[in-house]
Write a structure and sequence with these properties.
76 residues; 3 helices
């Protein structure tokens, strides 16, 4: 099971279909709305802001077809 998990390219990037077209764009919009609500209510501290911005950057990378995490490179 470990080998199949590590060899699966979708462990580090978005699979095509509704994940990439619907689900993760929706999560991005929810993250933006949450950030705005926290900011407007004065509940946003610097560590939370940094954490949410890192997540938002990773979402953007995934939506552009990139990888997040540390995918293993297969030696040939």
């Amino acid at each position: 099971m470990d080998v199949s998990m590590e060899s699966n390219p979708y462990s580090y990037k978005l699979p095509p279909g509704y994940y990439k077209e619907v689900l993760f764009p929706l999560l991005g919009e929810l993250l933006i709305g949450t950030k705005q609500l926290l900011d407007n209510q004065g509940l946003m501290d610097s560590s939370r802001r940094k954490s949410l911005e890192e997540i938002q950057q990773k979402l953007e990378v995934l939506l552009k077809g990139g990888y997040v995490g540390h995918p293993r490179v297969r030696l040939q």
